[in-house]
Specification:
Its main location: membrane. It is found in: Membrane. It is a multi-pass membrane protein. Belongs to the major facilitator superfamily. Sugar transporter (TC 2.A.1.1) family. The longest helix is centred in the middle third of the chain and has 29 residues. The protein starts with 8 loop residues before the first helix and ends in an 8-residue tail after the last strand. It has a three-stranded antiparallel beta sheet, with no helix packed on it. It folds into two domains: 104 residues, no CATH class; 191 residues, Up-down Bundle (Growth Hormone, Chain: A), CATH 1.20.1250.20. It is mostly helical.
Length: 322
């Protein structure tokens, strides 16, 4: 994948790291949902919240009831159905840029930018319906298309990518199953209450979902760590886990048993995989992940953790690690 030989020191080091993590996962006896919740509650809640807000941000108000939305804005019959089809095509096309930008901009930037654009588009949709002028039908179509494109670019694909990334291998399937169940639960909830709310609060429905978009922006900004460029094996450190002496001792014992001693201990490979200590983590792929900033209450924990990816930097070849 990285256009290097199988014997490259970074490939060997990363392979050793993956074997280490698999061995650690095999030591976990209880793999129940309760055990996952007790040990990885924060990650489970983040995974579930991403799927919950994917629904609360209003996509199914448009997807399920688009003809009703356009009729409410002034489009009639066949025209409303045509606008729905055009909107769906744009929705699909908007997912394409994310394939390339997800590892350029990062997950956080895509989610936050999408939430901001969706909030503006939904607020404008409600406003144009409220004023009910001659330009309202066209204005609502534009706003809905912008909203759908923003969702397809951000909260459509990323909540399906993010949970598998942050969950540990031993509980990945269970964690993803809970996040997916959350998606369908809120999908059902939104689908059931939307027709009622359209009759009761009318145009106010759209600013209400804009509020949820703002909530999702704040949630991502404060609580979602960036995972771009960070190997799955390093996620424990991203969340401040796996850095206690017991975990480090396990890794050192396993590494000593797996790798025979030789006179080349100061080689680049050795420098990449040995000597990890609490609060400083050397990646097997030649990179270093510094730990979150010291905890100063919940604000310190949040702000220290939200940009963990920024600290993930290359380690100079052959350098000493603190």
């Amino acid at each position: 994948m990285n256009s290097v030989d199988l014997d490259d020191v970074k490939v060997v080091a990363e392979f050793d790291e993956i074997k280490e993590m698999v061995e650690q996962d095999r030591q976990i006896g209880d793999r129940s949902y309760l055990a996952m919740w007790r040990r990885y509650r924060q990650r489970v809640l983040i995974a579930m919240s991403s799927q919950a807000f994917a629904q609360l941000n209003g996509i199914n108000v448009i997807s399920y009831y688009a003809p009703m939305v356009f009729e409410q804005a002034g489009w009639i019959g066949r025209e409303a159905i045509l606008m729905t089809g055009i909107n769906g095509i744009i929705y699909v096309l908007s997912t394409v840029p994310t394939w390339y930008l997800v590892d350029v901009w990062g997950r956080r930037a895509i989610l936050m930018s999408g939430a901001a654009v969706m909030a503006v588009a939904l607020t404008a949709t409600g406003w144009f319906m409220y004023v009910d002028q001659i330009y309202t039908p066209n204005a609502v179509v534009v706003c809905v298309i912008v909203f759908n494109a923003a969702f397809g670019f951000s909260w459509g694909p990323i909540p399906w990518l993010y949970p598998p990334e942050i969950m540990p291998l031993a509980f990945r399937a269970k964690g993803v199953s809970m996040s997916t169940a959350t998606n369908w639960l809120f999908n059902w909830l939104v689908g059931q209450v939307t027709p009622v709310l359209q009759d009761v609060i009318k145009w106010r429905l759209y600013p209400m979902h804009a509020f949820f978009c703002c909530c999702s922006f704040v949630l991502v900004y404060f609580l979602y760590p960036e995972t771009m460029g960070i190997p799955l094996e390093e996620m424990d450190v991203v969340f401040g886990e796996g850095t206690d002496p017991a975990d480090i001792e396990f890794r050192e014992i396993h590494r000593s048993a797996e790798r025979p001693s030789n006179d080349d201990d100061d080689s680049e490979t050795s420098s990449l995989v040995r000597g990890r200590r609490p609060r400083s983590y050397d990646s097997p792929a030649g990179s270093r992940l510094s730990s979150p900033a010291p905890n100063q209450g919940w604000l310190g924990a949040v702000f220290g953790r939200r940009k963990v990816g920024d600290a993930y930097q290359a380690v100079p070849s052959g350098g000493d690690h603190a």
